[in-house]
Design brief:
The protein has about 210 residues and is α+β, with helices and mostly antiparallel strands. It has one domain (about 1-200): L-2-Hydroxyisocaproate Dehydrogenase, Chain A, domain 2. Helix content is about 45%, strand content about 20%. The strands form 4 sheets. A 3-stranded antiparallel beta sheet has the order 3-6-7, with helices on one face. Helix 1 packs across helix 2 (about 25-35), helix 2 (about 25-35) packs across helix 7 and helix 3 (about 50-65) crosses helix 4. The longest helix is centred in the last third of the chain and has 20 residues, at about 190-205. The chain is globular, with a radius of gyration of 17 Å. The two termini are about 15 Å apart.
Length: about 210
């Protein structure tokens, strides 16, 4: 289905900026890009920004601070079980999070971020409102040419040491789609987790 959609968009609207929102997000973004065979900056998988919002919310609960006090809380990698909440860059009121949180708390937040959707199902709900807000932000950025810095899934070509895979990485978006992939500094543990996440996505791609 996604290949057929890509063919039709390529035929009738070849200069479109395309947002992928359906799951499995990274796999569908990959196959769309492969079929579309167009500039990678015009195919954007929207989900990592939602995961990042959840990560920030869970940090605010754990640390009993307002979300507005938290900066640089991003989630990279797969929109799924191997997503990578990046703790090393998080700041609370401009101060590094590292000295404020213990390893056990980090493990708990990683698990809760990855399984956030399951908690919604307990209340017979879904995450349509969260992803709608994040998708709107990207659409607004493209239509109004307002620069937006978020993590999103895009085809990688050597960035973060990965190629031929789509996964969530920090990007800058405007009317042209993705204008820049930001290769932020990660610690050793986060780099290893991101490599594992890429392997997981590639495994799913090969299984199709």
């Amino acid at each position: 289905m996604i290949k057929d959609i890509a063919k039709k968009i390529k035929q009738y609207c070849p200069n479109a900026v395309v947002l992928i929102v359906s799951n499995p997000l990274d796999v569908l973004t990959y196959f769309f890009q492969k079929e579309y065979q167009f500039l990678r900056n015009r195919v954007i998988g929207v989900a990592s920004s939602l995961d990042s919002s959840r990560f920030r919310y869970l940090l605010s609960k754990k640390l009993d601070v307002r979300q507005s006090q938290i900066s640089d809380a991003v989630v990279l990698g797969e929109h799924g079980d191997t997503m990578v909440p990046v703790f090393s860059r998080v700041k609370i009121d401009g101060k590094s999070l590292s000295s404020m949180i213990k390893s056990d708390a980090k493990k708990t937040i990683i698990s809760e971020t990855r399984n956030y959707w399951k908690s919604l199902r307990k209340y017979k709900s879904r995450s349509q409102f969260g992803i709608a807000k994040n998708t709107f932000d990207v659409i607004y950025s493209v239509l109004r040419n307002k620069e937006l810095s978020i993590p999103a899934s895009v085809m990688l070509n050597g960035e973060f040491g990965e190629s031929d895979v789509c996964m969530g990485v920090p990007v800058i978006i405007n009317k042209n789609g993705i204008t820049k992939i930001q290769e932020i500094t990660l610690n050793d543990e986060e780099r290893e987790m991101l490599a594992t996440s890429a392997k997981s996505i590639k495994k799913y791609i090969k299984s199709v």
